[in-house]
Specification:
Layout lengths: L1 H29 L6 E6 L5 E8 L2 E8 L9 E5 L2 H6 L4 H9 L4 E6 L2 E6 L3 E2 L2 E2 L2 E8 L2 E9 L6 H10 L10
Antiparallel strand pairs: 1-2, 2-3, 3-4, 5-6, 6-9, 7-8, 9-10
Length: about 170
């Protein structure tokens, strides 16, 4: 019985993702956004799907619920600061993260430190995998061995994302 239930759940998840992918690609085409590098990942129970799209120097994040009446996904754009990544691409931790994530990364420069975010896990401003990979001393960059940064979870936003599952009008932006 357990095997039957788990197999049925997996099949429903695959079908749900295929539907979410069709809706996502149609929505991206309507908005003239590239479909070359798209990630569609489930939230728990596979009703809500997170969409991340890389498009040059920006990336988009949006959510689609199988309960949505509309098939137009609201996407919010963010600067990936690809220039910071490209300037340090010869530094092994940066190159490795770029390769490993298939380019699904963003960068930030904070207090003279270069931090790389893996956009595949988490949500904007609350990524599970964030790595300190270097720092600037004046204008000189010093590459460091990558160090994972602690997760900065916003509980209020998590609550909004959960509510987004059944209410497509909930604003989940940071």
């Amino acid at each position: 019985v357990a095997l039957l239930v788990s197999s049925a759940y997996l099949m429903l998840t695959v079908l749900s993702q295929q539907h979410a992918r069709r809706v996502t690609l149609t929505s991206l085409e309507k908005q003239n956004i590239s479909t070359d590098n798209v990630l569609i990942a489930p939230a728990p129970f596979s009703l809500l799907w997170r969409v991340v799209v890389m498009d040059g120097d920006v990336y988009y994040e949006g959510f689609y619920s199988l309960l949505d009446k509309s098939h137009d996904i609201k996407l919010t754009s963010y600067d990936s600061y690809r220039n910071l990544i490209d300037a340090q691409i010869d530094h092994w931790p940066v190159a490795r993260l770029d390769w490993f994530t298939g380019g699904m990364i963003s960068a930030s420069r904070s207090d003279g430190k270069l931090i790389i975010n893996d956009l595949r896990m988490g949500v904007e401003a609350n990524y599970v995998f964030r790595f300190l990979v270097g720092q600037w001393s004046g204008t000189a960059f010093e590459g460091l061995e990558s160090v994972q940064m602690p997760l900065q979870l916003n509980n209020e936003r998590v609550g909004r994302i959960v509510r987004r599952t059944w209410d497509e009008h909930v604003n989940v932006d940071p």
